[in-house]
Amino acid sequence: MIGGGARSRDPREKRPWTFYALATLMGVFLLFLYGPMFVIYLLSFQGPNGGVTFPMVGVSTVWFEDILKPGQMANIPVAFGRSILLAAIVSTITVLVSVAAGLGFRRRFRGSGILFYLAVASLVMPSLLVGFGIGLGFQLFGWKADLFSSALAAQLTWTLPFGLFAMFAVFNRFNRAYEEAATDLGANAWQRLRWVTLPILLPGILGVAMGAFTLSYDEYARTTLVAGNRNTLPLEIYALISSSTSPTLFAIGTLTTTVSFLVIGATLAFVFRLQRRRALARHG
Amino acid sequence: MEAVGQATAFTAPARARRRPRLTSEAISWLQVGPLAFILIVFFALPTVLFLVVSFFDYDRTGIYPAFMLDNYREVLTTPATLRIYVSSLKFAFIVWAITLLLGFSIAHFLVFHVRSAAVRTVLFLLCAIPFWTSGIIRTIAWIPFLGRNGAFNQALIDLHLIDQPLEFLLFSPFAVCVTYVHLFTLLMIGPIANSLAKIDPALLEAARDAGASRWRTMVDVVIPLSKTGIALGSILVFTQVMGDFFVVKQMSGGQSASIVSALATEIQAMQYPPAAASAMLLVLFVAIMVAGMMRVVDVRKELVR
Questions:
Q1: ipTM for the complex?
Q2: Residue B270 located in a structural domain
Q3: Engineered SS bond to B43: which of A94, A122, A130, B178, CB 3.0-4.6 Å?
Q4: Binding-face residues of B in 9-68 toward A, CB within 8 A
């Protein structure tokens, strides 16, 4: 992830006191980061008579079963399916568009400055306002807002700049000598892209795909005004927060976080395997 | 539509070899074309649209094209506007200071103190993974933790540090700040770590050989060389807090509103012109702040090389 700045340091060198201070800070920060999340994972297994706070009154999975029962939670499984589908579409478009744009940005071209700042602006724009603007536009043209038109567009204004900047980071570390070698060996531009550039960039591209997927899967503020009448999972969860006072909310939180973790874990495992295979190939 | 644009973008370089008339500038434009299209149609135009609507007239049944400044006059003269801007700025400043200090320390630890690349990657991933999970869930996760009978109060009571549960923990400005720091510190760690990793270790050795203390090295070498990361992280954290819709609403217990949640109320009441005027005000405000921070460093030069 981050290139090492300390590679040339002697490993036997004594640690300064700041190391111990910062290591402690790091530990406390990780506790701070994960502590509250573990509290809700734990509470989602609350016993049937327990409430939304400690103590735990027994252990059960009734709150998970609650989600699947017909009734108040009926929309959750459907919304979950929609969210996954939308996230997959967003992720695919983000990868295609931002990899191409990353390639384009390697050369200076007229308007590159404007496009760059447009991407920055799109990234820092208060999220709800993006949805507001798109919603107004759809109303102006008399179109109906829908998950796979207006909401998809709203999410792309957030995942594309993210994907573009991630591609900048990827290309920063890319050694162009490989491309030159491919050209010298007679590869045409398409072969060079297909067999040299893209395979080298693959771990970075997978990172962009995963990032875009999870950003879309959890997106709320951009989507809420333009989702039409079919809700995504975060919109359903948001609606539940004010009405639900049972640990079911935590059970939903546990499930959706599990899905995020699975996506992240699978991607990371794949990237690490890829890198290990490459390292092995390099060292014979 | 996207897929078609994409196909041209990818095959463009190949065609360029056969037909050398396609300039490298044209290839670049084919490659960035889809991005430019989406950002212009779904970001730039909608923004222009609510700029236009902010001058419109409205009543209970609809909005009417007009050019009037009443919406702006109303937004700028309401005392509530100043109040939420001051309260949002206060949050933004506190959260910025905390995330900067915390983010810089952690980035510094990861880049300069952790010697094994594998450990560094694992620690960085541990920081990053929560960022890829739901912000809403991470926000409400603080409720059972900070509540009156929450895990934190329980722990303090069990340790005999307090005998009454602390009341200010949840549904308070404190809870809002804690949640922001929890959600946004990674936005500082990432860019700063990226800047720090680019510093040549030889520079640090040179500083040490020249007799600089660790503190002097930090102030004169490390911090100046990481200012791009600091500026980028600051922009991200600042804009996230100013654009927050959910955290203040959920965690302040109704004590304060955020700029955007006040705006959302107007949108839900279909009062589009005044909502658009407050939106423009916020966009201008954020744009000026971001432009100010970008003046400090040339972010573009740093990112695209």
A1: 0.87
A2: yes
A3: A122
A4: 9-11, 13-14, 16-17, 24-25, 27-32, 34-36, 38-47, 49-50, 53
